[in-house]
Every structure is written in C-alpha cells, then in structure tokens.
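Aim 2 progress update. The chain analyzed this quarter is reproduced below.
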Amino acid sequence: MPLPRLACLVVPLFPLAARLRSEPALRDEAVVLCEGNGTSAHVVAATRKARKAGIRPGFTLPQARALLPDLLTRARDLESERAAQEALLDVAGTVSPRVEDAGDGVVYLDAEGLERLFPDEHDLGRALIAAAKRESLPARCGLASSKLAARVAATLPDSPVVVPAGGEAAFLAPLPLVKLDPEAEIVETLARWGLSSVGDLAKLPAADVASRLGARGHALHEIARGRDPRPLVPRRPPPGFTEGMELEWPLVTLEPFLALAEGALERLGRRLEAEAVGCARLDVSLTLEPEGCDTRTIELPAPTRDVKTLLTLVRLGLEGRPPGAAVTGFSLTAHPDAPRKGQLTLFGPAEISPDRLATALAKLFALLGPGRAGAPQAVDGHRPERFALVPFAPPPPPATRKTPRTGRGLLSVRVLRPAVPLEVLLEGERPASLRALVSASSTPPGKGDGRPAVDVAGPVRVASGPWRLEEGWWQEAPAFRAYWDVELSGGGLYRIFRDEPGGEWFADGVYD
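Predicted structure tokens:
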C-alpha cells in the first residue's frame, strides 16, 4: 500500500505576521508584538529590525525600549490572526480539497494525486509558498508521508523541504524528543531511560514501550518510526470570507475607519478572486467603546468584487446610520456566490459585463435608499397599473436561441403611466355607450410632475366598449372602472377609462 503524501504550511511568528498583514506599512519598521498590560507587558514577537537591535521574545516592554527607544508596539490582534488563518486555509484549498486547520499558522493538506499538476513535489511547495506570499503571509512548506515529518520539514530554513516517502524515520532520528510534543510525564520517563533523540526512542521494541507507557507511549513510538497514526481531518469550508482587525485606539470619525476598511476589503477581494466568486452580501460588525456592538448587512443586487463599490456601500451605510460610539474594532464578512455569466456577441458593440452591471446597480441602490429601486413585477389583480417592486435579478442568457414567434396581426399598446386625465364632452348626461362621445382633449400635464406627454383631442369616430372592471369591493375604496377603445376622426386609436365613483376620465394607453 503506497504511503500517503501530506504537505504542511507553517507561518513563522504567526501572530506578528497576521498583524503585519493588516498593517503592511509596519513591515520595515522596528515593531514588537506584546501581551499584557502595564509593567507586565512582554514581547511575543519582533520584526527583523527589532531583532537586530537585540530584542527577543520574553523581554518586558521597558527592557525592549531601553535597547530601542523609538520602538513601535502593537498588541496581539485575535481578529487579524483569525483572518490570516482563514487566508492560509484558502491558499491550501486552491491546490487540494482536503485541508486541515491545525491552528496558529499551521495547515495540512492532502498532496496525493497532484503528480499531473506538479510532477516535482518541490514545484508544489514553491506554488504554495508563492500563493501564501500573495496573501502577505511568509509561509514555509514541507512535504512528507507523516504529519510530524511534514511539519518539521516546514520549519527548516531552505523551504520547501521534501522528505522522500519511507525516509521519515531517518529524517526524524536526529531531532530532540520535544519535537514529538509529548506530555510532561512521558518526557520525564524517557529522560530517566537516557533517551535524548527521536531515533533513540524509535530503536526501542514497540511491545516494551507499549507495556510501560501505554497507548500514548505506543503512539509516540509509531510517530518516531515515521508512522504517524493521526489521520488528516479535513475542515468544513466556512459560509463566508471574513477580514478585520482590532484597533490600537478608538476611532470617532469616518475617514480613518474607511482607510482601514479599504485594506480589509482589498484582502477580501483577493480571496474572492482566488475562489472565482463574488460578494453577494456583506456583513459589517463594529466593536464599540466600551463594550458595545453594531452589526449591519449590505445586500448587493449581484455578486461583485469591486472594492470601490463595497467601500462606497459601507460609507453610505455608516453615514445614514452612524454607530453612535467610538469604534475599537471591526470585521467584514463577504458571503460568496457565483458571478453571473455574460452573453458574448460576434457582431455589434460588446455588452456590459455582469460585474460592471452589478457595481453600477449597487451604487444606484445605495444612493436611492431601500425600497426605491428594483425591477417591476406584475401582481395578481384586475387593475393593469398594479405592480410590485422586486430585487433586480435578470435571468441568465438562454442556452439556445429560440425562434421568434410570427405576428398574428395584433396591435401593441403603449401604456401611459401614470394615466393622463382627460376632459370628455358627452351628448347626454349619462351615456349608455361612448358612441355619444363628441370630443376628448388631454389635460395639460403639470410642470415637472412626471406625466407623459400625450395629445388626445378630436371627435370620436368609432368607440368599442364598455368593459367593466371591479376590484376590492370589500374595501372602503373599491375600484370600479369602465374601459373603451376609441378611434378619433383625426386619427389615433386610444384606450381610455372612466372612474365610476368620481366620474373622472383618463387615457390609459395608445395603440401603435
């Protein structure tokens, strides 16, 4: 049975790398990452410039400032670390569908079956490192047939490091026993036995180790011999992509926050592009001072990855409803969806791409506000002008071109919305039909009231009707109408109606 092949991605100094990913301007500065408050604050990690000055992890903050007075300090940012870990998982997911989250900047992935894409495993390691670098994560890569060997190989400086299949035991033999991450009790027992390396443990008989150390000792012995019994545990992909950070100081104005949000949206855009998806819904979560929270959701008419559009929507949302307190942290979650496909054409001008259309619609909807933009949809009712406003969702292009229907001599009507009021002169007071209609003239529309321009005037030559409409008889103000089709002597065919309760006349449409 062939041995499995596993790859491991490790980000050295992961808390610091996650913080620098959120604040890339600090990469060339002397920066330390600290935990604790006041005099108990101590250094967790330091940038290369700070390490050259002699600062090491474990130093107190006063000790570090004594070596470098202009030292910059940052606290550990759990939000940035969580986002960086998800980005590292996304990098591994671009190569293999089976990815395990080992936490703290460590990811395992199944490298079995990738020989066609990467004949040389070194090429696979270099591709993973390059993909992590695009996400601003300085990762190292190791490949082996066991988890421990792959992880140890990933910590070596000459990355990527490939351990040949079956050579895991020889690779692990010179390493100290602490690399096996054993329990303290087992470490003390092995030290009393005089064992100091992984190879010393691997030389012992398996039955004797199991009888004296139990199941835990037997598992360590198997790992020392290059047979890691721990299986790869694939993670379930999250429902969305999240980026964010905790702020060093509270923000009370909008512009500084938008500058930080733009960087987070750019990182989200790169991750969405790597998965060939767009953002269909954006969740904004704000941490407020002292212990408040403000969450809001931005719905998009179509999936998009345009950073400027998303940033404009965030701006408009915060301007319309300010958070009400200083912001101390934020997270942006993009819920992905497949982008719409565009219809290609061989002749004529190129059609607008669905992504650009989604970007324009998102800006339009944000400017007009909720409930003021969308697509009209007919509703169940008798009145022809009734409609409902639904979200704009154009159907995908048809797979095949349908043959157009042939005309059957039908007239098309150009509907007038809203209906144009008319002044109608009748022969009698209450005509039985519109044949008694003598003349009709349109009421001039008011300036700027949005009514369509229509000229309906002249004696009626032929009239057909009435067709009565009744709707909402159970309501306080039901609709009772009588419709006619009229042809004027001077030309023109119109559809008009009379509102029965009030007796007003309206032009409803023009036949073309």
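The mean pLDDT is 84. The CA atoms of residues 22 and 263 lie 7 Å apart. These observations will guide the mutagenesis experiments scheduled for the next reporting period.
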